[in-house]
Write a structure and sequence with these properties.
Layout (H helix, E strand, L loop, with lengths): L1 E4 L8 E4 L8 E2 L9 E3 L5 E7 L6 E7 L5 E3 L13 E2 L6 E4 L6 E4 L7 E2 L8 E8 L5 E8 L8 E8 L4 E7 L2
Antiparallel strand pairs: 1-2, 2-3, 4-5, 5-6, 6-7, 8-9, 9-10, 10-11, 12-13, 13-14, 14-15
Length: 174
């Protein structure tokens, strides 16, 4: 299992892995503002959200579970966050939303091939929380329409085909 641990309750968490019974745990990251984790399909790698401090620069990372080698897969930002990262069924891509642009992206596990797959913040739109289709050809995601009355943002579920970069609504708030 993999989880986020904040032993001192100071918002400086690390990512740990352990056997299912809780034994043989060890930290894969240094204490920082680390967030959601996602296992690669072959369980050799973990993708996670990470920051250098609670109010610091943020990015998404991939860490090799066996060696601890960490690779940043998104650019560092001081203006927002990327995440949570989600592995494709084949393990060839990772998807994430970015509140810096409001768009969804895919990237290779080594950090190359960054690709915007939705348009982003044009007109007060935020795309986030991607989920892969079983064949890896599409992403379902939340599209939040911001800029409405405070506390009244509307969220709808959309799907985007990666072959065509065309998003269409699946479910809208009533």
């Amino acid at each position: 299992v993999a989880l986020k641990r904040d032993p001192s309750c100071d918002c400086r968490s690390d990512i740990i892995v352990a056997r299912a019974d809780g034994s043989h745990w060890h930290a894969l990251t240094d204490a920082g503002n680390n967030g959601s984790v996602s296992w690669s399909p072959d369980s050799s790698l973990l993708a996670y959200e990470g920051a250098t401090s609670p109010v610091g620069r943020t990015a998404d990372y991939v860490v090799n579970v066996r060696t601890g080698r960490r690779t940043r897969i998104t650019p560092l930002s001081s203006r927002g966050f990327d995440g949570p990262p989600v592995w494709s069924p084949t393990g060839k891509l990772i998807a994430f939303g970015s509140n810096q642009t409001g768009a969804l992206y895919t990237v290779n596990p080594d950090g190359t091939g960054l690709r915007m797959v939705t348009a982003g913040l044009s007109g007060g739109v935020m795309d986030d929380n991607p989920s892969w289709s079983p064949n890896g050809g599409s992403l379902a995601f939340d599209r939040e329409f911001t800029g409405l009355a405070v506390g009244c943002n509307e969220t709808s579920v959309f799907v985007v085909s990666l072959a065509r970069n065309e998003a269409r609504p699946l479910v809208r708030d009533a």
